Amino acid sequence: MDLMADYRIPFVGLKPGKHEFQMRVDPEFFACFPHSDVDQVHGDVHVELDKLDTTMTLRLDLDAQLTAPCDRCLDDVNIPLTASDRISIRFGDDTMLEDDLWILGTKEYELDVAHAIFQLVHLAKPSRVIHEQETDCDLSMTEWQDDSAEDGEDGNDIDPRWAALKRLDN
Ligand SMILES: [Zn+2]
Predict the structure, then answer these.
(1) If residue 118 lies in a helix (H) or strand (E), which one and from where to where?
(2) Most buried residue, 21, 98, 100, 140, by most Cβ within 10 Å?
(3) Cα torsion through 23, 27, 33, 35, rounded to 10
(4) How far is the CA of 166 from the centre of ligand 1 (A)?
(5) Distance, CA of 129 to CA of 125 (rounded, Å)
(6) What local confidence, expressed as pLDDT, does residue 144 receive?
(7) What is the 71 CA–ligand 1 centroid distance (Å)?
(8) Which residues of 92-108 are buried (b: 16+ CB within 10 A; e: fewer)?
(9) Which residues pair with 46 in a beta bridge?
(10) Ligand 1 centroid to 152 CA: how many Å?
(11) Inter-residue long-range contacts of 146-149, CB under 8 Å, 24+ positions, other chains counted
């Protein structure tokens, strides 16, 4: 079965007016994108297509949850992902898809919203995935990380190899 078929809207046959669709986001969806940096996302995108005679507007509302390892303790953390997007659609000679404006050429008969949903999820993803409360972190892991930070990342201690190079300079 063509999984991506669920993310295409055959707009040609639709009557003017508002049409609503519910589209899934789940690991199966992200598996269709080889370069995704998330996959453990579960939820829905509510899609509304407002069809007028000469233009259309597409609205996407994401309501999902991301599960990813916490940056602090590496234990899984669940982060709610919500975001919205609005795309204006016009008709022209050639198809040209930009982020918020799609020009559809004369041969087009359906809207492929999979890529827009993919982008929306990445837009909603926070730059840091972390337990909101430090007390929610897996403490055995944070203690281990604190130790390793003292050994390696503490800027006051000069790496012995650099110290040796410095001596060569003098
Ligand atoms: Zn944590």
Answers:
(1) helix 114-124
(2) 21
(3) 140
(4) 39
(5) 8
(6) 58
(7) 7
(8) eeeeeeeeeebbbeeeb
(9) 22, 61
(10) 21
(11) none
CA distances, 24 to each of 10, 27, 42, 44, 67 (Å): 18, 10, 8, 5, 16
- Tokens 């993919």, residue located: 118
Give residue 141 CA to ligand 1 midpoint distance, Å.
Answer: 9
DSSP E strand boundaries for 3-138: 8-9, 17-25, 41-51, 56-69, 76-91, 96-97, 101-104, 111-112
Written as tens digits, the pLDDT of the chain (170 aa) is 688 999 999 999 999 999 999 999 999 999 999 888 788 999 999 999 999 989 999 999 999 999 999 999 999 999 999 999 999 999 999 999 999 999 999 999 999 999 999 999 999 999 999 998 889 998 776 665 555 554 444 445 556 666 666 666 65
What are the residue ranges spanned by the domains of the chain? 3-138
Q: Indicate left, alpha or beta for 99 from its phi (over 0: left) and psi (-120 to 50: alpha).
A: alpha
